[in-house]
Amino acid sequence: MSSSTDSKIGLALGAGGARGFAHLIVLQKLQELDRTPSVITGSSMGSVIGAAYALTMNTRVVEKMIHHFVRKLSPQIQTLVKRLEGKGSWSDQLDMALKTLTRTSSLEADTLYSMLTEVFGKARFSDTKVPFGVVATDLEKGVTEFIDSGFLVDAVCASSTVPGAFPPVRLGGTQFVDGGVLRVVPVFEAYQLGADRVIGVDVGDRPVQQEFASSLEIISYLNAIKEKRILESDLGGASFRIFFDSLSLPWYRFDQSIEILQKARSHFETYYAKELERFVTDHTPST
Amino acid sequence: MNGNSLSAIRQLGAARALFENLGKPLRIATTGVGTLVGTFLGFQGLDAASRFFSEHFSTFLGFLDVSIFSRPQNFMEKGTRFLADFATLVRASSSTGKRIFVNSQQFFAYLSDQFSFLEEKAGDIPVFASVFDIHSESMQWRQIHKPSDLRAPLAIVPYIEPCTQGKKVFVSTQSFQGVCPRFPEEKEISLHLCLDSTSEKDFLGSASSFEILLSCDKMRTQELKRRALSGFDRVINLWEPSSSEDARFISLFQQGFVQASVQVHKWKKQNLFL
Asked: Catalytic one among A178, A196, A202, A234?
């Protein structure tokens, strides 16, 4: 049995779209403390950042990757923001409504896959420097699937397909949507990969709403409460919990990467930096 | 008690099996369509409830059969379905007071009429319904005394519109976690048994973003249901087999009776009621 000072620390990185850039701050801190996680799991954006880090073990490379893609995909990001915030023209709005009913996604299927292919190429899970796994949601069975073998690009793509925005991904005969639907922060899976203690990182933005203009708003808010309950239950199993709950941005604001990283750094320094340091020191093998 | 409109009928068959083997329950705790079955059962008894739902089976299906459950087979059906979904989207986006899938106004007018007995007599078995308060993000128990008490536990969004009371918005606990929670402890209650008829398999599909988003919402409900069920002492699964295979009242009633009888005998053999 492990003693408290030789724990294998796992890192579970949560879903949250662009807010997931904040995961980088935690990775930087762990690197600074010279305590790289023994295993990493990710859901949705957590799987993208987690996979990039697990392959390189270098936060600078991950940060460069973030900025590179935000610049490169700038036109697509602007279109996405316009559409989802209802700022597009009348015809854009109608186009969006028609796509919602006739297509499986409002964005082109290739957008996500080609970006991830550029990052991960033909890398496999076996190429990562620490054990790594992602969660995706089986759309037919309604359960979470844990994927820790095969090509990274396929699994990360399956884990990151925000429902409605990107089309479901077919892998081995199964249709998958975003892992964050049922497992916002994959804490349990980090234990499954061999961690003794798990740091769970949530980047969710769940504002409290009191007024509702339409039934759709109520349905959508109820859905957010469900997500919160699932998260609370999953994070209950984590040894150390980090909530980036002051980012206050919708998932699709990838154009705000610099602001997100700044806000996340300041939030982390204020609330978690010292405690995480203590936690890591307590669970680092003495030499 | 909870449930889809069809498999909720199995709860009547299951109730007969339970009454015969274990006696009447001290409390009936419900949510969703289970509130209708449970309320009739608690106030009018098993025979009257069975008679009522047998006679009104097709009327209930008429109200609760919504286009989203059907799979379009040909071009015409696809066109009709598209228009129905488009209208649904517009309705849901434009107001909190209009119907979404089910015509709530007509449905609740019908219920007020059929459940008017609630005003006239007290039930043999007290019936409680679980509702979810959107603002406080919490579940609440309400005892059923009058037809309007059925409104909030039946607000199964997105199919039936949410229930607004003053500044508060309530929905059925079924649309939150698929099943009511374990009823509060009372000295006399020694067993919390759940008749679960909310399917864990009927996801809507993946033909459009609209369907995928609804499926994801339903998956979250089912995930919470799996966790909530662990709070009960015993659970009888009434959602299998799929109710669409034989959707006649008598078949559903018998299936419920057989499933509950088999389960109770199994538990008795294992001395689980001692």
From this structure: A178
